[in-house]
Amino acid sequence: MLILKFGAYYLTGSAAIFSDALESIVHTMATSMALFSIIYSSKPPDEKHPYGHGNMEYFSAGAEGLLILLAAVGIIYYSVLDIINPPEIKKLDIGMGIVALAGLINLFLGLYLISTGKKTNSLTLVADGKHVLTDSYTSLGVLVGVFIVFLTDIQILDPLFAIFVGLNIIWTGYNLLREAFGGLMHEADSNTISEISKVILALRQNNWIDIHELRCRRSGSRVAIDFHLILPWYTTIKEAHDEETRIKENLKMNFPESEVLIHFDYCKPSLCKFCYYENCAERSEAPSVKFEWNEDKATGKPIYFKK
User: Fold this and answer.
1) Which of 86, 158, 164, 181 is 20 to 30 Å apart from 256, CA to CA?
2) Angle of helix 15-41 relative to helix 2-12, nearest 10 degrees?
3) 190-305 to CATH, choices 1.25.40.10, 3.40.1190.10, 3.40.50.720, 3.30.70.1350
4) What CA–CA distance (Å, rounded) separates 152 from 150?
5) In terms of Cα–Cα distance, which of 38, 58, 54 is closest to 46?
6) Could you report the per-residue pLDDT of 256-304, keeping only the tens digit for each?
7) What predicted TM-score, i.e. pTM, was given to this entire model?
């Protein structure tokens, strides 16, 4: 793609096509970084990195976002220079054909990378796929701009379209940086939390009194999950362990590389009014308070915090 686009720029002298080629330089650098990131993040956990090496993918995505922003600044800078000193533009028909071919290839490549990244929970592949798609959209924008210049011969439109492309790329780079920093800061992932809570709530037994403070954090393809579960105070250690095993096995089916930590709490007489376990022989009060077993309950405070 890099060779094709610079070939098109060499033939035409178009600022818009140059902006597309300049982004390809950045993408070549970013892809090399992404390859290193995928290799490094796939290493298994060790003594110094007990949670694995998956956070490297956030660094890679952040670096790629930063490179995209730098490319955008470069595109706008050179476009302004072309407005001040317009170059001679020629052979736009051939240039449009080359750019169209490059854009079409990048479109299919970007969609494939994003699809593969989502299947493997790889932020690096998703980020790289988004960059490739941005490259494809850039080519489309450039193609439209160059085609208008070809029809009208208003050559100042060429660098103006290049500036528009640069501004669009800035937005993409910002989103990548935002996602990368969110991952590094363990920002709450609402989609993953929703999936986890659905799995856990579907496993609910009659002797579950409450589940609360469900949390998770991602590190590459690995997911660390923890929550509190209140069971009757007379539940044996073996029974609690068996329940823990059952929950973990089911979560593993949906999140193969998950690590699950369950904090078991025991009930107190004050919780009887919340408990609808029919086979309890130690009940001190009839159940009188109902609540919904849903995601908000799972991620919220203990039931005894309710007024």
Assistant:
1) 181
2) 170
3) 3.30.70.1350
4) 6
5) 54
6) 878 899 999 999 888 899 888 888 888 888 888 888 899 998 999 988 8
7) 0.57
